[in-house]
């Protein structure tokens, strides 16, 4: 992978999303246009605001596939700035990331759901003098993508989405869908609904939305494991997106960046506001901005309003947390964890998100994230 200068990173950011690549990232080489500043170990010409002080060696991390495209860009930018440092993020699932973190095999984990009390208790075995905490780092809309040639600007509401994924609405020309799309010519075609096969924070956040906005049609607890009957399973957000892309009549849920990179059309949501709301970084930011911090101490877990009817606010959102020890981090990886997360929570690091189809964390919350990262020990 050829090292890019800072002024080339933004221009290639969206193109990088189309590259699924390997799940584990390796160190980048350098080109002839970059040198090394011996004083701080930073490659000249790389991202200017990355502090490489103390960072060294290899840092393993894993978890949420929802943030994979953001993490790819962050890792590329960071390793372009810091010599001798390798960040390996394995995009698996939120559940697998938390398990790896609590087994002590990764420096941090990515999760689309905050740690549960039992997971916090388990983390104390690894965080010898503290416990695992949630740092909101990536925001964004969970897009409902579909494959229905000839049908543009599809609108659905929460009850209809619930019935589709609950195997109650089985055909695209169902009266409930037709009522929401009076100008569309809906085909007499079976719906193929795809969901995640493994435990997923994306699944849990979709469940939270349906549980709040479609209580009568979605009676399941919001868990990481897919709860409803019917449908077909695929692995990871990339797997669900691929199935929707390949199968006419398909519908599925995944982060907007996966839809954008593969030109998959997405559903606008009728929330009860004056107009349906399309998935975008801006519309997701409006919903996330209303979030409240529900965590205590250094934990910054958020309480999202999934039933919002605010104009222009897209309600199906998630926040991906980086899970770390507040204290008791491993001495050999702590400097690199702090250095990397300082970059991802920086103004420049957050700007990468909007360029990649994600929603930056609101400034007031992100300021607390930066302060917490600074105090990790």
Automatic annotation (TrEMBL):
The keyword Transport applies. Gene3D superfamilies: Periplasmic binding protein-like II. Residues 1-29 form the signal peptide. InterPro entries: ABC_phos-bd_PstS, PBP_domain, Phosphate-bind_PstS. Residues 55-348 form the PBP domain. Belongs to the PstS family. This is Phosphate-binding protein. The gene is pstS.
